[in-house]
Amino acid sequence: MKMRIPYLYLVVVVLAIVGIAWAPTLIVAAPRESTMGLVQKIFYFHVPIAWTTFQSAFICAGGAIAFLFWKSEKGERVAVAAAELTVVFGLLVLVTGPVWARKAWGRWWEWDVRLTSTLLLWMIFVAYLFARRYGGAGGRRLAAGLAIFGAADVPLIYLSVSIWRTIHPKTSVVPTLDPAMRPAFWMSFAAMTFLYFALLGARLGLERSRAALDELHLAAEDHGLLDGEQA
Hints:
The protein is mostly helical. The protein is built from seven helices and no strands. It has one domain (7-174, 182-226).
């Protein structure tokens, strides 16, 4: 049977490709920051990736809530797909941040509230994947609880620079960005967003195919079609 790819998904993929191709051109053309120079341009990747990570954590938590309270298998598929992407994008945040910090602070890592809470977020979603895979009969429910706990960490990460004394840049950086830097930033932001949803759509397609295969396997067992194979 021929698999049909939704038109909307194709649009998202095309927009992601266009954004990824166009963003570097705008980043190169954007003016250099006077203090940090060239290394500041990692800002155009670091911040959009961080926002995408936060978005992914909320999507995962939404799917987890649907699974916990309404037994939604679709919600659980959304949750696991988003959890994997939260781990991937979160790792990119933890890699790009220290590169920027090395120039700005003179060291790769600082146990700053925002950095520490971001590391905690990544670890929670790594724990989600382990709990779902190796947690036994209650693993999926335990993983769903971790997803909700992880999403609750996101507001803490965002507000941390306003509540505590921190060396991390404030949330006012983006609103006060030099107008000449804004096209590069917003193009990178859009590119990361479209890339995320393209990856999420592909991962959900894999989960749907896996669920359909499991149903076929169970149906084959019910009709005794696998008896010879098991023997």
